[in-house]
Amino acid sequence: MSENLKCVIFDFDGVLADSLEAHLQFCRDYAKEIEEHVDIPESVDAFKENMIATGKIFNPMKNFMMAVGFTKKQAEEGNESYKNTFHKKYKVSPFENVDTMLQRLRERGLKLGIVSANYRNVIDDFIERCGLQDSQGPVFSEDVLFAKKDGDKSDLSKSGALKRIAADQCITPRQILYVGDQHSDYKAAQEAGVCFLGVSYGWGFFNEPAGIRFAKSVPDIANRVFSLLRDSTDSVEAKKLQLEHGREMFLYHAGQRNTSIRYYLLAIAILSVAVTGLFSVADLTPITLTLTLFVGLTATIISLSFWGLDHRNQAIVDGDEKLLNRLERELANECLTAELKTIEHSDLEHQGWLVSYGQIMPLIFIFSALSGLALALASLWYGLGTGLSVETPSTVEFSSAAISLILLIISTVGVMAKVRLKYKGRKNSKV
Asked: C-alpha angle with apex 209: 206 to 211, nearest 5 degrees?
């Protein structure tokens, strides 16, 4: 399927120009000129019936002459004669309704061009004689018209010309449709990555191979192109709906995560006020130590519980974000707009250390849980000491012990994490 079709490129012979009979006549005349007997098909129908089914290549002209029976040397010499005399002696007409078909495509804002293995002077003479222009100017834009020029030594293939058109027009290959009448045209389109539409009335398709779109007549080309345009529009609209739904789900789940974090911070704030109140007394009594133990354990349990909940919420939000990134990229490519500011681009612009909830919140959860655990252990330690008739500690002594325990626990966890990573690295290196 095309991505918002922008450009339609035509092969020349057998698509726009009804030139097969003229080429056969040139071969007959050239055979007489060199006094060589060549079994050239007597009619267009005979050529299509006997030659196309063989799978021979008919372009450029040298290959056409070899296909009908000339030797390689004769074909090369005949090609020189063809280049200089064909457009003067053999007047080629367009297929019926070509001008109407081209006009319909132009009215839809499509850029039209030609990529052909024929010579440029032959094509220019055809365009001039047939009057293929309207009030808007020439039907075929000069910058998307590729054919052989006299004296041009460059060997630009059809696929190379199609790729150059995409680059010059600043569009993707999938926004180009190449209309051809031979298997070699289809192969060139595949190599260039452009869309292809075959015509069954031309030179080279004996039947209609599966997987290739075909136009059975010149007017049908416009109908097929308009069908592609509708498909492209439907595809963009569908992606817009998907993008809108994806954004709604992303905002919903991100909102859930923010709400859970706010509840957690509120709970920690309340526990912090409680600890401050307990520490406001000069000496800690057994009741005060018991309450401090309860507050510490509560802070630890709440921190670990919300950490697990936040991990689950983060996984959901990350999944929504990946889907949203993919949809935004696809829609930006099809619409060819740089104005669509994606989440992915926003992240790249704000890369740094600790810039997201996913990086900051685990540290907060760990610190709060360890602080609560240290507070609980300090309370238990001094509580047991008090029960054994040890002197009741002052608030300063208790605070110092709690802070020391926090640092000890954090250091222990850090060492264990470092050892685990080192062991994991060795294990992976062995594998």
From this structure: 155
- Identify which of 146, 140, 59 has the alpha carbon closest to the alpha carbon of residue 98: 140
Token pair recorded at residue 376: 């609980």
What is the structure's pLDDT at 10? 94
Count of CB atoms situated within 10 Å of the CB of 68: 20
Report helix, strand or coil for 110.
Answer: coil
The amino acid at residue 339 is E
> Which residues 6+ apart lie within 8 Å of 137 measured at CB?
none
Q: Quote the pTM value.
A: 0.55
Beta-carbon count within 10 A of 4 CB: 17
CA gap 209, 196 in Å, rounded: 13
Higher pLDDT among residues 59 and 402, named by residue: 59
Question: Strands 213-215, 195-199: parallel, antiparallel or unpaired by DSSP?
Answer: parallel
Instruction: Report whether 177 contacts 111 (CB < 8 A).
Output: no
Choice among 5-14, 39-48, 267-276, 344-353 with the minimum mean pLDDT: 344-353
Amino acid at position 273, single letter: V
Q: Which of 171-175, 292-296, 384-388 has the lowest mean pLDDT?
A: 384-388
Backbone angles phi, psi at 59, to 5 degrees: -140, 145
Q: Answer yes or no: are the C-beta atoms of 28 and 36 closer than 8 Å.
A: no
Main-chain phi, psi angles of 339, to 5 degrees: -80, -15
Measured CA to CA, the distance from residue 44 to residue 31 in angstroms comes to 18
Rg of the chain taking only CA atoms, in angstroms: 39
Confidence grade of residue 205 (pLDDT, cut at 50, 70, 90):
low
**401-407 LR contacts (CB < 8 Å, sep 24+):** 402/374, 402/375, 402/378, 403/374, 405/374, 405/377, 405/378, 406/370, 406/371, 406/374
d(CA 398, CA 13): 95
Mean pLDDT of 95-123: 89
When pLDDT is cut at 50, 70 and 90, the band that residue 337 belongs to is very low
Q: Which band of pLDDT confidence, cut at 50, 70 and 90, is reported for residue 249?
A: confident
Residue (of 247, 225, 295) closest to 7 by Cα position: 225
Rounded CA separation 11/113 (Å): 9
Which tokens hold the place of 21?
């009979």
User: Integer distance in angstroms from the first to the last C-alpha of the chain?
Assistant: 44
Of 399 and 95, the one with more pLDDT: 95
